[in-house]
Amino acid sequence: MAETADNIFKEFREHSVAEFFKKNRQMLGYSGKIRSLTTIIHEYVTNGLDACEDANILPEIHVKIKQLGNDHYQVTVSDNGPGIPKTHVGKVFAQMLAGTKFHRFVQSRGQQGIGASGCTMYGQITTGKPTHITTSAKKGKVYECDIMFDVKNNRADVSHEVDYEGDLKGTLVVAEFKDVTFNWSEYGPGEYLRRTAVANPHARIVFIAPDKQKFIYERVVNILPKKPEPSKPHPRGLTVDDFLDYAHSSKERTIKTFMTKTFDRVSSAKAKEVEGLTSIDFNRKPDSITWKDAEEVVDAIKKVKFLAPSTKELKPIGEKQIEKSILNVLEPDFHQVLTRSPSVYRGGVPFIIEAGIAFGGKAGRRGNGDAKVEVMRFANRAPLLFDAGADVITKTVNNIDWRRYHLKNMDSLPISIIVNITSTYVPYTSAGKQAISDEEEIRKEVTLALQDVGRKIGEHLRREYRKGEKAAKRSTLLRYVPETAGAIATLSGADKKKLELKLLKMVEDKFKNSGKADEEEGDE
Amino acid sequence: MAAKKSGVKVNPKQRDKEVSKALEGIGKEVAQEIMKSQSPNVQIPVRSLSNITFNEKQKQLQLGNAMSKRSFMNVAHSRKFMQTMLVTSWINKELVKEGITTSLRDMYYALKRTIPGTKENTVEEQGESDPIVIDLETMVDVLREELHLNADVRGRVVGNVVIKDRGDKVNWAKLGSGGWSIPSNIENIEFDSVDADYILLIEKNAAFERLHEDKFWKNENCILVTSQGQAARGVRRLTSRLSQEHNLPLYIFTDGDAYGWYIYSVIKWGSMNLAHVSDRLGCPNAKFLGLTMTDIDTYDLADYTIKAKDVDMKRAKELLQYPWFQKPEWQSEIKMMIKRGYKAELEALSSKGLRFITQTYLPDKIGNKDFLP
Fold first, then answer.
1. In chain A, what residues touch B47 (CB-CB under 8 Å)?
2. What is the average pLDDT across A249-257?
3. What is the DSSP string of B126-164?
4. Average pLDDT of chain B?
5. What is the architecture of the domain spanning B156-367?
6. pTM for the full model?
7. Rg of chain B over all Cα atoms, to the nearest angstrom
8. Tell me, which fold does domain B12-150 have in CATH?
9. Which residues of A touch B75 (CB under 8 A)?
10. pLDDT at position A496 over 90
């Protein structure tokens, strides 16, 4: 019996999801043993944070990594979120591309809707074991189950379901993985969580490492971040393909109304202006637009001036919040933070750069021995640990002449440089989503932000240096008082004690009022 | 306080009292300032080239009027101020009042100790305490010897001279091959009898030995001095006193290079570092005998010259600029040396025979009064 086209297609599709994952593991963050484990932690923690924030709950995330064998670990992550309704547990943990954020024009931490399902899949293909979920979506009711990924049907295979009474809050995931490794490098889960804590001062994060070390990052901000709102795309950010997609899925009756309703900052007057630059009648139906038409429209859009995109949807971390988390996590001797005003890249994508510098304390990267400078990169609060060399933030940090800010030998100083980009669309260099591409406007904003905090740090260092210098001068003078007084007493016959007391008082007076201290200094 | 003028004899004990009073005066002044809550300070004449002038009339390098202020409350000065007080107090108490004379090195060790409660010493090296002595000399206008400190002891002398030194009568004609070793302090030497027509000062010890062995001083009736390199204070003070108190011409005989000529310059006009005592150490009537570039031609020594090094050329170019080397004779000599690019040691004369110096060269030069000013 000959197979029908439907059957062939079905077969093709069933295989494709598993094949897609297996073949693109590295694209999704599952490349290398250390990175794989960090990716797993990232997916679970991100899900937990998002779940809490969506439900207006201040997040508390517990992460435990336990070593079971060589390259074999058990990961336990729990949150205090709203829990997952029974019917959705499978979708969250075992259905690719089922995320709620996919295809929305909104600022978000998440990756591309692979998320927790990717973890389930990875655990399953490396250990053959299911992921165990415990969740409570209703007060007092707990639901537990094992989840396997039914690859053929791209859906969950749920088993060992149990319902009972209990007072669990949120969701608890336990899963095993092989072909992963834990270490304390700057690419490991420990660093990932430390940085997550820096960017999420409203969360309490507890981490128990394989060696039983416990890290607690306390919540220092008791207000949830404002929820980012979905926004309309700005016309200047559109590609021909984007435009065609939007047009064909529009239910508007004319191209004109489609344009004004779908895109940000497009008034009827602006739509008319665009129309005038094309040979297209904007009273046509939007689904009648051809590729060629779309090209013409996108070209015309480039010639028309639009208001800059609205930036109200962007919710940066905020200066106060970053400051609090820096003090909490890094306990620096001093620090500076800055949130820049919103800006726009590629003509249509709004973004905000935030930067901070922390000096001393626990700031800086501690390997073996002394602290070194570290650059913490974040995109929408999510730490970016990999591909640092390709990232515009790293490049900008390296291009700044830090000596101008009293930071000589920058590399070997205990400094953490923090940069967060908040945007509805973060331009990554590759599908790995670990490096932000070198957009001119982003580079400029990062540079200005870092120069600003750098300048303030420099001023601070200069002040500290002067203070130290003054103290040193005072102690120099005090040191010479007794010998000087003694010699003068011997020479003149005056009373040594009196001379000494007078001199001591003169020195103390000189350094009491700060202004006079610098007069008449210099060589003879 | 007025310095002791050359040739004027003062009772040494009396002089010590004056010096001590001057030193104590420094202490009293700063003590008063402290009691008035003013930053204690001392004023010290500046000894850099900028404050040194050449007095054409007196033929002396002289210290100008520029003063620098060393103040305790100025952090850049306070350590030096402390050291100034320590040195002044120590010299007054331990040397001048006790009538003891010692060396700069001894003083350094006597002052060196750890400042209580620190890891710092009052003086770390002799280079710190030595300049303070010169500071004191200029501040109160006294000679180092009057502070009971000896300078380097270098130089010897022979001739028909009898002196009194610490009660001993010393006849310079009867001291065998060594001659009289010139001490640092010449102030209290008394000249009993001086029988000489002139003084010949030789830079090099070897040439001095040669002349002494040939009894040159006896035959020529002169006083023979060697400075053994740059002239120490004792040599300068001795030649200054002899030439001025006994009205003797002074002839200087050095190598034919910029360094030799500078030795002459220091003896005649004074040095930059000790410009404040030029009047006591200088010998304005000194004349330069040789070696000159002209001598090399006259006595056919060109084959015995040495190629001048970069430092020689540099030094020569510096001499060319000094105000006290502006006489046309000197300008022409120095320029000749720079042009030829060679120098000559006074031993070059020995190429003409070991006794050429004593039998031909010196009698010729002195007889013909072939000198440079």
1. none
2. 89
3. HHHHHHHHHHHHHHHT--GGGGTEE-----EEESSEEEE
4. 89
5. 3-Layer(aba) Sandwich (3.40)
6. 0.60
7. 23
8. Arc Repressor Mutant, subunit A (1.10.10)
9. 473, 476-477, 521
10. yes
